[in-house]
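Revision sheet: structure tokens.
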Amino acid sequence: MRNHTTTHLIALALACASLAAQAQQPVIGQATLVIGQAHIVSPDGSRATAAIGSAIRVGDRIETTSGGHVYLRFVDGANLSVRPESRMHIESYSHNPQQPQLGAIKFKLEEGTARSITGAWGEAARERFRLNTPVAAIGVRGTDFTVSTASDTTNATVYTGAIVLSPLINGCAQSVGPCNSTQSALLSGDMRGQMLELTNREGTPLMVAAQQLQRQARSTPPAAADLIAAAPPVRPAEPADIRHEPTTPAKALDSETRGASVVALGASTPAPAPAPAPIPEPLPTPAPPPPAPAPTPAPVAAPTPAPAPAPTPTPVEVAIVEPPPPVTTPPVVHQLSWARYDWTKSFDSEDFIKTFAEATAAGYQRLGGNGAYSLFNTGAASTASNSQLQEAVVNFRLASASAQFVSPNVWESAKAVNVLGGNLMVDFSRTLFQTSLALQGAQVGYQAVNASGNILTNGALQATAGNANLFGAVTADKQEAGYAFIKTLPTGGAVQGVTLWGR
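Predicted:
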């Protein structure tokens, strides 16, 4: 009897300790919309049905069924959408305003699909934001992106911002932020219609054309319809320890919420048939009145046909609608200019490239070149603000680009190659850069140009890793950049070209 009591007390103490440890974890977010079946699994293994207002803590795992969606909003304004048949683990979510480098945001998508929109904490510490899958490490540089994963495949699409996708090797699982290596690949919102795909943990991410996402439409179950109809678009009351920071409309999952809120409006409940009127008691028959002259009969109108019965409305199915990619105008570059040598072929689309004679006649300052092109500083005045000059990490946008295929046969003329998009990230605090370009042409097929390296004191880009030779520079005001590239092809020949970047 004593042993049984002791065992019971020990189990009770362990349960109380587990509950106390869970209670000590602060609330970092809450569920703002739940559709279908979903659960929140605590670190101790206990499961709770997800509902609007459910608190989210570090260590929780969100699990959805085949028809389940959960939308989370975090304390810093970040949003996370966990799609059907998915498991998302919140491994860490912390912030230190005085020392952002000590904070860390780390998710693990074990299977399924999720969409993440970075909040204030993720923006403040872009080198400390990571999303892992079973095969990939995704460093998040302040962005809106979608990831899908299975046991051996991960693919990612970016709407805005940029991510760095690497195979989950060499200790990447334990670190935070981008896991830079020679097998890393960068994808940004500027690279429209492209998707990164990694098919095994030892492989290299490939850039492929993004397929149109299939919109999974499902009939709204009665419980979900009641839930959505009861409280659109008002947000539920939040726990006392949640503090939301303001966020821009672009950083909201409003489009997804609106799509999820399309309920079966046409399937209205038919009104009940009216009750039959009671039959009155018969009254005494009154004496007949004196006869009156017969009135002139009124013309008989044709009977009005009864209206045709309304067709039975078809229920509207719930659909999760992805927002279209934002339309942005390319930045304007006025401090840097490219010039070609006489022996470099020109194309009609290269109106931003001058001849060498034109650049020198205009008095531009030559910064250097690679034998095919030269980069010039036009001498235009800087328009940078103090806040822009102090930014540590800058994601440049592609302003202009041109590429061509140079055949190994010197008698064959160069052929134009399309530049699909690209990204250039510069970390001025560590004097590092990383860039990626997507190219496509009839002679070369699809080609990816990747390079990373150092920024010298004079602003020159010095590539130390990648698959192409690079020459370029960043302006002193951190507003513009440009580089020329040459990538030798294993089948013979090379692709070469130039780029200009702005803010």
